[in-house]
Amino acid sequence: MTSQQSETTNPTPKSTAEVAPLPKKETVEFEPPLACIRRLLKNALPKSTNVSKDSAAAITRACGIFVFYLTSCANDLAREGRRTTIGAKDVLGALQELDFEEFAPQMEKFLEQHRKEEKTKKEEKEKLKAAKKGGDEKKDDEVAKDAEIEEVDETEEKQHSRDEEEEIRSPLKKQKVDD
Question: Which CDD domains match (predicted)?
Fold first, then answer.
């Protein structure tokens, strides 16, 4: 092997600056999708407000940090209660502990609506399952029509809950505009 061949097969860095350092183990980072954050900003801010890419990225990062902070606090509350599962009451307690108690009523209202929707979905699923097993003497077409009608009702309920959420957000929007 010639000296020229050994240089090409076994390259050595000329300085230590050329060697890439080994990656350090960092904590897991979380950032919600930028599109979701932009949608939230669009709904929360007046239409005349523009948000730059940098500020949207900063808000996205702040959201991720807040989620970790809230989760950590809720986890501490669950552990104090000798539980391994974080429940809604732990999240509400964490909000209060972190001095965000003004959001607790909105969260309680959201949880109530969410639980209703989940219960409705479960009941519909059970009805369809029972109908397919032959519990009802209906034909498949009739079952499908009933499911479509229930789906329309569910869509109307979701629109109603969106309207309620908008009512909740309106005072926040007005407060931000006044500031």
Answer: HFD_POLE3_DPB4
Under a CB-based contact definition with an 8 Å cutoff, are residues 29 and 61 in contact? no
**Sheet strands (E) in the chain:** none
Q: Where are the domains of the chain?
A: 27-99, 102-179
Q: Is 74 exposed, middle or buried (0-12, 13-18, 19+ CB in 10 A)?
A: buried
pLDDT tens profile 29-87:
788 999 999 999 999 999 999 999 999 999 999 999 999 999 999 999 999 999 999 99
List the one residue out of 84, 85, 115, 103 whose CA is nearest residue 93. 103
Residue 24 has pLDDT above 80, yes or no: no
Number of helices and strands in the chain (H, E)? 6, 0
Look at the block and give the residue holding tokens 């519990």. Answer: 135
pTM above 0.85, yes or no: no
CATH 2.170.130.30 for the 27-99 domain, yes or no: no
